[in-house]
Amino acid sequence: MITHQQRIGFYREWSSRAARQALAAVQPQTKERCSHSAGIWARIADALEAGDDPQVARMTRNITFFNIGCLVPSV
Questions:
Q1: Over the stretch 15-72, which tens digit does the pLDDT of each residue have?
Q2: Is 44 exposed, middle or buried (0-12, 13-18, 19+ CB in 10 A)?
């Protein structure tokens, strides 16, 4: 079973990965998308920490897993 802290850590890690991609990106559109994703992942983690389950549900409802191994929030 996944713990509450592991769930928070999962979203914090994805936020960190997206932020690193944004910093490393050359194309402006890629920078923007990765920055946006980093912010969304962080907001999901914040909502989890606050115990705001309805907000977490709203923000995670549209997460898509692409076959290339990337989770992309479409919020």
A1: 999 999 999 999 999 999 999 999 999 999 999 999 999 999 988 887 765 554 455 5
A2: buried
- The structure tokens 């979203």 sit at 11
The answer to whether the CB of 49 falls within 8 A of the CB of 11 is no
User: Distance between CA atoms of 45 and 66, rounded to whole angstroms?
Assistant: 21
What span, in angstroms and rounded, lies between the C-alpha atoms of 53 and 48?
7
Smallest CA-to-CA distance from 47 within 37, 57, 38 is with 57
